[in-house]
Amino acid sequence: MKIQCRNLSKFFGAGAQRLTALDNIGLQVQHNEFVTLVGASGCGKSTLLRMLAGLERADQGALLIDGRHVTDPGIARALVFQHYSLYPWLTVLNNIKFCRRLDVHRRHSTSASVEAASGRADALVRLMGLAACIDAYPNQLSGGMQQRVAIARALMGRPEILLMDEPFGALDAQTREVMHDLILHVHRLEQSTIVFVTHDVEEAIYLGHRVVLMAPRPGRIDSIYEVPLPRERTRDMKHAPQFLALKRELLDRIRDTSGIETDLDLLDQLSRNGASAPQGD
């Protein structure tokens, strides 16, 4: 098993102010599996991803990768943040190549490995459609282009585990579809394990082998759905009856677990009370 979460809990604050961000998370992810996380805001999706990256520590339970406890970040894991987090003083190409400058990658480097890394950087630049702006700086790029640079940088080190926090949210619809197919191609080619956070149910189904639905207050795993589609995905599958049925089921369950209907009832009550209040002159 590549990733094991055993009864993970995460708290913020202390005493009466303590907030349970994640409660008793149990999840296993196999090698080369693509798992997507969906759920209403506040259900802890991004917190769980940061724990997998080693940026947050569990307060209870255990998190293991390849059977070893996770306590810190590691070179086998790469995280694509929701916001681009590029280095503003580096060009597009140097942002992508940045991990190769780290001592952990240079320690045993040879001329052949340096040449291979350079070739990989060039290939990623072309794949991401960035060839025309390799010498540009982040503040000269659109938000969507910055995110493509961030994705290329994450892929540069051939991570065994790729963690993605709503990475395509800033992209236009057409580029988003292209990126879906690209990340599926990379996953298939490099046999990486991907955990992908999204608010888009259709995106979660199209990309994932399993969809993990999380619920808020406290953040927890509500249910896990196997995606009834072949691993080789094509865009016309989005119109398949089993795809649409799963999409409806997920949307209904998110609505049931989010408390939105309760909030709407309160708003309706507020509107009625306002309508019955006496009108001034």
From TrEMBL:
CDD domains: ABC_NrtD_SsuB_transporters. GO terms for molecular function: ATP binding; ATP hydrolysis activity. SUPFAM superfamilies: P-loop containing nucleoside triphosphate hydrolases (SSF52540). The keyword Transmembrane does not apply. InterPro entries: AAA+_ATPase, ABC_transporter-like_ATP-bd, ABC_transporter-like_CS, ABC_transporter_ATP-bind, P-loop_NTPase. It comes from the Bacteria. The keyword Nucleus does not apply. Residues 3-241 form the ABC transporter domain. Gene3D superfamilies: P-loop containing nucleotide triphosphate hydrolases. Keywords: ATP-binding, Cell membrane, Membrane, Nucleotide-binding, Transport. It holds the Pfam family ABC_tran. Belongs to the ABC transporter superfamily. This is ABC transporter related. It comes from Verminephrobacter eiseniae (strain EF01-2). The lineage of its organism: Bacteria, Pseudomonadati, Pseudomonadota, Betaproteobacteria, Burkholderiales.
